[in-house]
Amino acid sequence: MTFTSRLDLSEHVRKHASALLQARLSDALDLEAQAKQAHWNVKGPHFLPLHELFDRVHGEVEEFVDLLAERITTLGHIADGRIATTAAASTLYGYPLEASGGEAHLKALSASLAAFGTAARAAIGEAETLGDAGTADLFTQISRETDKQLWLLEAHLQAH
Predict the structure, then answer these.
(1) Under a CB-based contact definition with an 8 Å cutoff, are residues 110 and 95 in contact?
(2) Following CA atoms 134, 138, 140, 146 in sequence, which dihedral angle do they give, to the nearest 10 degrees?
(3) Is the Cβ–Cβ distance between 117 and 150 less than 8 Å?
(4) Which of the residue ranges 1-15, 49-63, 103-117 would you say has the lowest mean pLDDT?
(5) CB 3.0 to 4.6 Å from 110: which of 70, 72, 98, 153, for a disulfide?
(6) Residues 6 or more apart from 106 whose CB is under 8 A from it?
(7) For the ranges 3-17, 31-45, 65-79, 108-122, which has the lowest average pLDDT?
(8) What pLDDT is attached to residue 1?
(9) What band does 76 get if pLDDT is binned at 50, 70 and 90?
(10) Which segments of 39-141 are extended strands (E)?
């Protein structure tokens, strides 16, 4: 479904860009839930700093969700944030329910964050190929912030 807009991108470009955005929206919604899963369930000697870190990652990913969904609607399409859609469409790793210690959560969340970053970087080129610089720029912004969040997580996994 689309609506009429004065946006100067063709319907072909808007349709394909929206599909690209929707794929990453499903991943971002999954990633957002995974960050909360880590936040709620982390245990161990580094509980408080990790609890706060996972909440920070969640907040950043929540921003991605909003950016992606709003770009889809800007392009005249419907952003699908339903749980069923997210569960069926996410390309991220399934978060291990049994994770409890800080290291287990760090590894699980960093794996999903890295996969999300890889997909966001691929989407930059796809959006450029479509001729949608705005969507390419959005994915560049998301990629850059994803890399930063991954760095923050992986710093906790480095040997002293």
Answers:
(1) no
(2) 180
(3) yes
(4) 1-15
(5) 153
(6) 38, 50, 153, 154, 156, 157
(7) 3-17
(8) 55
(9) very high
(10) none
Burial of 90 (0-12, 13-18, 19+ CB in 10 A): buried
Which pLDDT score, from 0 to 100, does residue 6 have?
Answer: 82
Tokens of 120: 């966001």
Residue 160 has pLDDT above 80, yes or no: no
Q: Is the dihedral of CA 103, 109, 112, 115 positive or negative?
A: negative
Kindly list the domain boundaries of the chain, sorted by start residue. Answer: 11-155
CA-atom Rg of the chain in angstroms: 17
Alpha-carbon dihedral sign for residues 19, 21, 22, 24: positive
Digit-coded pLDDT (tens) for 5-17: 788 999 999 999 9
Distance CA 122, CA 38 (A): 27
- Can you read off the two tokens belonging to residue 70? 């709003």
Question: Which residues touch 34 (CB under 8 Å, ≥6 apart)?
Answer: 92, 95, 108, 109, 112
pTM above 0.90, yes or no: yes
> Contact, 51 vs 37, CB < 8 A?
no
Fold of 11-155: Ferritin (1.20.1260)
